[in-house]
Amino acid sequence: MAMLSPGWAVKLTFFRISTGPEIADKVKKTASSFRASGILFFLFVKTCDKYAYVCERVKQLLKICFQTCVIVAVILLAACSPRQPDKPAKSKPIAEQVVADGLVIVVLGDSLTSGFGLAAQQALPEQLQQQFKSEFAGIKVINAGVSGDTSANGLARYTWSVGAVNADLLILALGANDYLLGLDPAITQANLAAILDKAKAENLPVVLAGLTPKGKLDDASRMAQFAGIYPQLAKAYDLPLYPALLQGVRGAPKLLQADGLHPTAEGVRIMAEGLAEFVEPVLMDLLQQH
Fold this sequence. Notes:
The structure is a single chain. The chain is α/β, with parallel strands linked by helices. The chain is 54% helix and 8% strand. The protein has helices spanning 6-18, 21-50, 52-80, 111-114, 124-132, 151-156, 158-161, 176-180, 185-201, 222-237, 265-289; strands spanning 104-109, 140-145, 169-173, 206-209, 241-242. The longest helix is centred in the N-terminal third of the chain and has 30 residues, at 21-50. The protein is globular.
């Protein structure tokens, strides 16, 4: 039997090992994996090179976001920390707005005195003060008129509208809404009398402003009954009576607003002129006593 040399035996052995079907498949798979890994690595390197600038910008943005979050957190902690409550602002009493040596007049009324439909400076109290400006520079006229108020409403708010102000003179001008709402004249008279009693208890002088009918009416009419309230009260309490608050305006359409009830700015000016002339002697007496 022929014998093979050792060299050939090695060669044949290697040939058998390297050409076995299982080993060959594994080698192929390993080679494929190496090739795939190499390709992925190559792409990764190229991608990093290409997007290096973008990655750097992302890092910077993340850094800015982090710093912002830190600042916001500090602000929120500071806001949530306990602190002393703010002291409420003290509002000045109306009396402190008045000149120390001047007189204070309060006009207690309804929409006819509050300035319904007009600017604040066009209301009756403000116009009245303008009339007094030349002769009574230190006088302050306070607007205590509230649109829609009846005599009962005026009585209910007397303490803070008049009493709290430490007034020197009260001009009482209520009752028009009582008439328009169909209230009993006796109720209106009782409410006005109660207001006058409060003023009397405080030694507060009063000028009473009345209502007058549009024309001559039957004495038994409701309007006549309302008009009669004011002379009766003026006599009972010994008060100066200004017969009609709308004197010089009522019956003049050009001096009334579209509703035919409330005066225009010019109408208020005319009302203020007439009322100021009537009140001046009362003020002279008060100044002598002041």
